[in-house]
Amino acid sequence: MKKITKLFSIVMAFFAIIGTSAYAQTPSVPSADSGHYYILYSAQNGTKPLLKPDNSQFKPAGFLNTAGKVLCADPNLNDGDKLYYANLADIEAGPGRDYALWQIEKTCTGIVLKNKGNGKYVRESKRVSDLPYEMEIKQEGSSDQYAFRTKKNATDFGGFCIPWTGNKADSWNPQQGENGYTAWIWEEQLETTTQPTLNCTELTVAGSTGGSAYIKTTGRPTTANIDGTGTEIYAAADAGYKFVKWNDGTTDFTDNPYNYVGTDNKTFTATFEKLGTGTILASDELDGKYFYIQSAANGLAADWNAGDTRNNVLYADGTNGKLKHGSVYTDYALWFVEDGKLKNKGSGLFMTGSREQDAAGQPFTAEAVGSNGQSQIKTGNNSYTCAWKSNNADRLSSQGENGATSWYFVFDSKVTTDITSLKEQNISITVRNGILNVAGADKFTVYTIAGQKVNANQKLHKGVYIVKVKDTAVKVLVK
């Protein structure tokens, strides 16, 4: 066994010595239109130092010489594993020649690099990937050598591919020039390639005043090439706004998300309008006002949320039980504060347990989170109200700004203009010389039409005011 191991080492050393001369390289200009595979030989011969982006030296000349070795994969590499380089003879004797063959494959947006042996692509210029990542090829000066790099995510490129220590590939910026670390000789082979059949339908989405739009895929792009099998697009309302519709230039669509199934190039624009007045209230500005409780969860925070719920408001129904969240803008989505509790206008019930409603309710608290007007809500000693799956409300520990437990209080100017309910309670409101008189009630509050609380005992300027008595609010004109 020792003799076999020693013999193998000698053979490997021999191949290492002859690797650069046993296979003569014929430089080619890499192109997806060649119709053939390529072998990528390293042109890095150790005569140049490795330079940093500021051109200062990172490694001296002679640190590494990989000239003539080829970039390769093997059947044991999984998604995310690093590529490596070796003598072509070793690849042919080991996993097989196909693992040193590379195809420049066309996509709807550019080109990608694909290994023939394992069928995987190159990501981040140094790793194998189950999915294709866009590639750039750049000439090293005026030589027959070319550097290449591939994207590391949906939008950003990695550095250029280089051979590195441990026979592994790595990435580096900037290009290192002829015979430098980023230089490769692309040799066209006899083996032919077949380009995939492409259906390059382009889908574009756009937001407008009050919100943004994206395609529901990695990176949330606004433009993507689609295959016609169905692509979801999503409109996300800004704080104080609600989604209204999509329009593709001819037709309106109200579903959100909307699943586009088609092969025509399309641009969808999302339209939004103000939710209530669109004014975001702090927790100490809630008295005397109706308001919506709008989700601030964008689906990007590290929480257990079901996704982006920024279009949704917290609402109730007419019975005890769990609260919901969704695109519901009726009285059942309007809340006001009564006796330190959150009361629903539509159901007449109070929030309890941070996620339910009943006739008794529990005192509520609202805590500011972040610096953008968001609050976290809880009733009693429970954890915070959260936007949960299947449009149900639930409760969680704090998920932070833009998380599932974050909400906006959005002012709504809707008030009760019919004073019949006050008459039934033997309460009347009169105005004389700018002074309000509310007969039959010990406590009442007065607000401007914009929601600013004013001193009810002082003479009021001319204008429209909101007078809140118990849970009824009416408009009063001061002449």
Distance between the termini: 108 Å
Low-confidence residue ranges: 1-23
Q: Determine the mean pLDDT.
A: 89
How much β-strand is present in the residues?
35-45%
Biggest sheet details:
5 strands, mixed
Shape: elongated
The assigned structural class equals mainly beta
CATH level-1 class of the largest domain: Mainly Beta
Counting DSSP E segments of at least 2 residues, the number of strands comes to 42
Number of domains: 4
Question: Compute the gyration radius: what is it?
Answer: 33 Å
Quickly count the helices.
3
The assigned CATH architecture of the largest domain is Trefoil
Side by side, the strands of the main sheet go 17-15-22-19-20
Report the helical percentage.
Answer: under 10%
CATH topology of the largest domain: Trefoil (Acidic Fibroblast Growth Factor, subunit A)
Layout of helices and strands, plus pairs?
Blueprint: H1 2-22, E1 36-42, E2 50-51, E3 57-59, E4 70-72, E5 84-86, H2 88-93, E6 102-106, E7 111-115, E8 121-123, E9 127-129, E10 135-139, E11 146-150, E12 160-163, E13 169-172, E14 184-192, E15 201-206, E16 211-215, E17 223-226, E18 231-237, E19 241-247, E20 252-253, E21 258-260, E22 266-274, E23 280-281, E24 290-295, E25 313-315, E26 321-322, E27 324-326, E28 335-338, E29 341-344, E30 350-352, E31 356-358, E32 364-369, E33 374-379, E34 384-387, E35 393-396, E36 407-412, H3 420-424, E37 428-432, E38 435-439, E39 445-448, E40 453-454, E41 463-469, E42 472-478
Parallel strand pairs: 15-22
Antiparallel strand pairs: 1-14, 2-3, 4-5, 6-7, 8-9, 10-11, 12-13, 15-17, 16-18, 18-21, 19-20, 19-22, 23-36, 24-36, 25-27, 26-31, 28-29, 30-31, 32-33, 34-35, 37-38, 39-40, 39-41, 41-42
